[in-house]
Write a structure and sequence with these properties.
heterodimer; A: 7-stranded mixed sheet; 4-stranded antiparallel sheet; 11 strands; B: 6-stranded mixed sheet
């Protein structure tokens, strides 16, 4: 059983460009969350998707957007990249039960460097 | 807003010593608490999940306790090994995970 997978592993972009990161959840999971982890800090919640809609969002600007596909995989898009967007982007998946939360499983992350 | 704090930020111990890692959080309205391990530049590996109704959880050499009323959790790692060297993160869950900054552990052979 494959766990959470993310692509690409590493990415280098220039300020002002746009980037798309991809995530496939663990088998049996329908909820995908994205987190940004700056160097030396804990991950920060960006947003969560289930049933192909953004359900919850953290304190991130509209430059950060996402999508979830019918097979539960997800994309994170970042427009107009800033130097401060350089970070490890983590995808997590879990099954969803109304009013509760389950153990979240994380992928290996995508390291984004903005120059 | 949930605030999660981990103390100490870094810890260095000789092999064989027991490790005690602390986590505190400000809002007790949580569903569960997870402890993660992170190796440099890598993703997060879940170590233990404690549901809000539980007081502790054990897996092998790892034991985690949860005191929701006081907003504290402790991760104990018995008989540490050099392979335990990593950053340990705690996270509390409502609809999302709120993380501490982590404790970086070095176990000296």
């Amino acid at each position: 059983d494959a766990g959470v997978t993310q692509s690409p592993t590493h990415l280098i972009k220039t300020r002002g460009q746009q980037v798309t990161l991809r995530c496939s959840p663990k088998s049996g999971h329908d909820t995908v969350s994205w987190y940004q982890q700056a160097l030396g800090q804990g991950p920060q919640f960006i947003f969560q998707y289930y049933e192909e809609e953004e359900r919850q969002r953290g304190n991130f600007p509209d430059r950060f957007s996402g999508h979830q596909f019918p097979n539960y995989s997800s994309e994170l898009n970042v427009n107009a990249l800033l130097l401060g967007d350089s970070a490890l982007y983590l995808c997590a998946s879990s099954p969803r039960v109304q009013g509760s939360s389950y153990e979240q499983y994380f992928g290996p992350g995508t390291r984004l460097t903005v120059t | 807003k949930q605030e999660v704090t981990q103390i100490p930020a870094a810890l260095s111990v000789p092999e064989g010593e027991n490790l005690v890692l602390n986590c505190s959080f400000t809002d007790s309205a949580i569903y569960n608490l997870q402890w993660f391990r992170q190796d440099p530049g890598k993703g997060l590996t879940s170590l233990l999940l404690i549901q809000s109704s539980q007081r502790e959880q054990t897996s092998g050499r790892l034991n985690a306790s949860l005191d929701k009323s006081s907003g504290r959790s402790t991760l104990y790692i018995a008989a540490s090994q050099p392979g335990d060297s990593a950053t340990y993160l705690c996270a509390v869950s409502d609809y999302k995970l709120s993380f501490g900054a982590g404790t970086t552990v070095t176990v000296r052979a």
